[in-house]
Amino acid sequence: MADWRAHAAVHGFVGAETFAAVNPRNNRKVHLGLLKMAARTETHRYVFFMLPLCYGCLADLIGA
């Protein structure tokens, strides 16, 4: 049987936030996900998301 705890083998090394939303402004999920990960202490931090109505709008969402 596989050990599904392998991701936790090195505590504090990798952190991630994953979500999906229909609208890029839906509950400010992108903004809140980025803030949440910015406050964490892992060496490598990632935010993965799927926004079907947001093709090419990432710069607008993160203020770049």
Counting DSSP E segments of at least 2 residues, the number of strands comes to: 2
Instruction: Give helix % range.
Output: 10-25%
Number of helices: 2
What's the N-to-C terminus distance? Answer: 45 Å
Q: Average pLDDT, to the nearest integer? A: 75
Structurally, how many domains make up the residues?
A: 1
Our estimate of the beta-strand percent is 15-25%
Task: Describe the strand arrangement of the main beta sheet, using strand numbers.
Answer: 1-2
What about the largest sheet? 2 strands, parallel
Shape, please?
elongated
Based on CA atoms alone, the radius of gyration comes out at 14 Å
- Secondary-structure-based class equals alpha+beta
What are the secondary-structure elements, in order, as H or E?
A: EHEH
Poorly predicted spans: none
Keywords: Membrane, Transmembrane, Transmembrane helix
Transmembrane segments: 46-63
Descriptive account of the structure:
- The protein is α+β, with helices and mostly antiparallel strands and 64 residues long.
- The chain has one domain.
- The protein is built from two helices and two strands.
- Helix 1 (29-38) links the parallel strand 1 (14-20) and strand 2.
- It starts with 13 loop residues before the first strand and ends with a helix.
- Keywords: Membrane, Transmembrane, Transmembrane helix.
- The chain crosses the membrane at residues 46-63.
